[in-house]
Every structure is written in structure tokens, then in C-alpha cells.
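Purpose: get a first structural picture of the assembly so the mutagenesis plan has something to point at.
Setup: two entries, given in the order below. No constraints added.
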Amino acid sequence: MPPPLRLQDLPPKAARFCLRVERFVRKDLGLDLNGKRLLVALSGGADSTALLYCLRYLAPRMRVDLLAAHVDHGLRPEAGQDAAFCRELCAALGMPLHEAQLDVSGLAKQSGTGIEEAGRQARYDFFQTVLAEQNADLLLTAHHLNDLAEDAIMRLIRGAGWPELAGMPAYDPQRNLLRPLLLTPGTNLREFLTMIGATWREDQSNTDPAFLRNRVRQDILPLFLRENPNFLESMARLWRIAELDRQFFLEFKTKLDIHYEAGRNQFSVPLDALLALHSAMRLRIYKALLDGLAPGQVLWKNLLRLDEAVHARRSGSRVQFPGGKQACLERSVLRFCAVS
Amino acid sequence: MPPPLRLQDLPPKAARFCLRVERFVRKDLGLDLNGKRLLVALSGGADSTALLYCLRYLAPRMRVDLLAAHVDHGLRPEAGQDAAFCRELCAALGMPLHEAQLDVSGLAKQSGTGIEEAGRQARYDFFQTVLAEQNADLLLTAHHLNDLAEDAIMRLIRGAGWPELAGMPAYDPQRNLLRPLLLTPGTNLREFLTMIGATWREDQSNTDPAFLRNRVRQDILPLFLRENPNFLESMARLWRIAELDRQFFLEFKTKLDIHYEAGRNQFSVPLDALLALHSAMRLRIYKALLDGLAPGQVLWKNLLRLDEAVHARRSGSRVQFPGGKQACLERSVLRFCAVS
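Result (C-alpha cells, whole complex):
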């Protein structure tokens, strides 16, 4: 028997699962999706299949319009079957599917980056194209609480600051990206699929220990869970604290008289107003402005160096950031620009 | 040849090591130790031996008076030799040593806590007694950057919030505790001892995998260091960011009209002033007040629950915290008290 098509026909526990996802988006993220067109990134694995069903059940309540996109990376022998599975699933759920075949090995060789990074980039490029062509508002991905915990551990290892340390955002307006399952444990997704009688495709490519993410998944996260069986819950709480701090830091930014010159893609901030703030706040303002200029990860080492120069009012100082971004300290303003 | 007794007789690299420690205390922590009497916790291991030498070299410059304390836990067969080593070392450096013999196994059985916890408690009790009897100002321990990194990983595992997540403080005025080596990598301490020609006692008791700390030290930290050879540096930076945030959050607390009733050991805060602040700040104020009331670790889960009640102005609400502490929401004030 195929899974039911309406929320009211689900077993109560499965329905509650969906309603919690809706509440997370509406209450925790404060997003009203009414009238939006949502593109679901679908691989056919358990996570994205659960996301697709969940949204399908919520669509009439949330008044959203759904479409899906599937990418065949040309890496796995089962790729054709994965694509066929996605096609049948979308047909059964009555929604359009957009497909792409990518030569990720070729792209990786061309760009000189790793397979994982090349695949991620090509996938997101395709999704952005579909978003634009189909006039959709948001891309939805199935990242869940285990992914979030792995991400936080990776960020700790790589040396992130706060609040980035707590993991990826659930809503990224710059990339039109939404992760509605971010605080849902991975096991709940499989449970949900089993409860509604749905099937999915198993993906073995997530176990290659050549990738840090897989080493964290296989070696570190299980160790942490053994030490603290509530570790995932703790990471969800840490993420919530980080969200509060992120909002709090942003509030201060809006109080400053920040000037943006679109032609030069350049922000300037009055130095006196900056110096009236605490270092803790100044650092977050530098970061927000640099993130807003251009892509390129801002390193805390450089932020701390910049703040030393600001604190000492060393005009003429320049601090470089990845992605061709720089901060220039002048007599009365601090200027952020992207050198292209 | 025994190690030199004066800073100016050290190899330049060893002297620089000491001066960096001095600068950390004076500049980073903003502490002036001039005229203070410092009690060094000495086990005879590499870390505390390095701390003792380092302080001995700095004492004339910093104008501090030094004494040491050693605890024999009665657990290791070599305990007598460790004590003899400490006695000779302190005699050579011309400073008094206070010793205690503790039956930690017996104490652990009596209190029902683990050996590690009972030992830690008994050790600190003895150090506090010596502090009081000898009219000393601060207890100094040899915790270093590897300890800090392990501590941060353990805090992540156990579910700490921010800024506690970044690890133990370098200066804890409530316990008169100072950790001058907190941002110094452990290997630098052994290098320093080797450079000055000093010896130390090896302690094998730090490897028992029954303790989370030792599992983190042996299994997790090496993994993190393999992924990121600069991981220790990253943790020092994270700690600095946390310190800034800690100060920043404290500044807000001082702006509130907080009333303390010593007789009842109770704080009350006007609700309207609290509600004018962002949740991110309110949470830190609750935590600071609860930490100030009595010992007992404040859990973020409870802080978040309390903030929900405050935000909704649910007067009559009570939230319990470990250590007999509680928060009571009244019509116009939030009251924190310790029920003993």
C-alpha cells in the first residue's frame, strides 16, 4: 500500500512529526511561507525523501507550491535507478521534477577542487538555475540534527568563532536556502518514512573516510554520543543560543550609521561610533559587513587583528581577508571593500 | 648543573617564555600582582614544575611572594618520591612548601563520588586552607592550552552553552584561582624545563581511560590535531572571543538595578528592565546571578525555560536549578534565591 497523500490520513505520530517541522519554520524561524514556491533538493535517500513527503503533507496547510530537483552526479552505478525512483516518487506525489546529469569527476579535474566540493558546487548551481527558471522562492534541503552536530564538530576542529561555531543556519536569505529539518534527529526521519510506509534509496557514498565529514560521522560523533546520549539535543540547544546571539549582534549593527556605496561595493562606518562599542560587538559588525560584501570565509584571526588596529586608531592600517576583501582604517571611518 | 636562579641567566628563549607568561597575566587578564602572596599547586609533574620555575624567575620583576603546596593522594606507589622531589625543588628555589597526605580512596568511598572527583575536592580544600592560614592571595595552577582544549571538548560533549563552552577561566576571583599558563601549549612547558636543565616527575595516572578527560586526551584531541595542526591555536582564539563576550555580557548586568538581600541570599531584578533587553542578554544575566548565589552548575535547558516564562510574564512560575537554587517570577520582579 503506498503512503497516504493527506496529513489527516497519517498515523498520529507521523502527523505530529510534520506539524513539528511546520512549527519550527513558522515559530522558531519566524518565516511565513504562505504563497511561496518551494524547490526541494531530492537525492532519493532517506533524508530528502522524508523532507519531500513531509512538505507534501504540509503544503495545503502552509499554502505552498512544491517542485523538486534531482541531480545525477554520474559517480554511482545505481545513479539511473536513483533518478527513476525520484521520477516515480514525484509522479505519485503529483509534483514536477527537474533533473540534471553532471559529470562531477570531469568538473573536479577541470576546477582542481576535490570531488565533494565540485559536486556540491555543481549541484547548487543547478538548483539556483531551476529556482530562477521556475520562479521559485526558496531551495529546501534535508539537512538534519545529525548533520548539524557533525557540522559544529567540524567547525570546532577548523577553528570557527562564535556564533558560527554552533553550525549552519536554518535559513540563509542570501542563498534563498531553507533547512526545515535542521533540529530533527536523523533517526526520526527514517522512523517517519517507516510509519507512513514509504521506501527510499540507500546511498553508500557517504562513508568514504577520505572526507572529514565522514570521519566525523563515523569516528567522532559516535564517541560523543556514547559519552552523552543527549548530545544531539545539546547541539540543538547550542544552535538556539547561537541564533539568539546572532540576532542580538545584528541589532547593534542597525544602530550604526553604516554607509554603502553600491558602485564601489564598499561599506564605511564612522570610527567614533565603533569605538563606543565593546570589542565583542565590533568584531561581529566587521564580520557581518565583510560577509555582506562578497563570498570568502572571514577568519577570526584577521578580525582580531583588525580590532587591535581600530582600538589603537592606527589609521592607514589595512587587513586582508580571503575573497579579495579588505578593511582600511582611515582617520574617521573604517572602510570595507572587495578588490576584484 | 642545576637550573639558573635568575631570569637574566636563562637562555633567551627560556626567558622569553617567562616574559610571555607575565604579559598574559598583566595584559590579557589585566591583573596587577604587585605585593601579592601566591600559592603554587605543585605535584612535581612537568606542568607544575614549569609553573614553579617560571614564577620563581618572574617573582623579582612582578614583586610577588611565592609559596608552594603539595598533596600526596595516597594512590601511587611513587607518592613518597614525588613529595621528596617537591621538597628538594622548593628548598633549591628558596620557598616554603606545605604538604598534606590525603586518603583519597577512603574519601571517595565515604562521599560516594568517584576517585577523581574526591581527589580534586580534597586537594582544593587543602589549598584553600593553606591560602587562608598563610594569608596568601591566590592559588596558581599549571593548567595549560592542551588542558584548555580538552576542557572545551568535554564541555561541548556535555552540552555547555556560550561562553562557558570555550573552557575554564584563567582567573576565577570567587575561588581566588589563577591559571597563568592557560594559553601556553603543553609541549612548550617541557621545552622550557629542558632548556633550563630542570627535571620533573612523570605521572602515569593521567592515562586511565576510565576518566572522560583521559579518553578526550588520548582519543579525541590527537584526532582533532591531525585534522588541524593549528587546533590548539584555534582553541586559544576561541577562548579569547569567549572572554570578550563574557566581559560584554557582564557590562549589561551592571546597568540593571539588581537588589541583593544578604540575609536571604537572594537577588531581585525589575522585570520591566529585563524585558527591555534581548533574550541573548537576559539569559546571561540569569546565569551570572545564579552563579553568584551558590555553587551548582546552571543548565542552559533551565535558563531557556526561565526565559520563556519571563518573556510571557507568567508570574508565579518557578524554575529549579541544581544546588537548591531557584528563580521565582513575580508580578514586577524576578527573584533568584538559594534554598538551603
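The mean pLDDT of chain B is 93.
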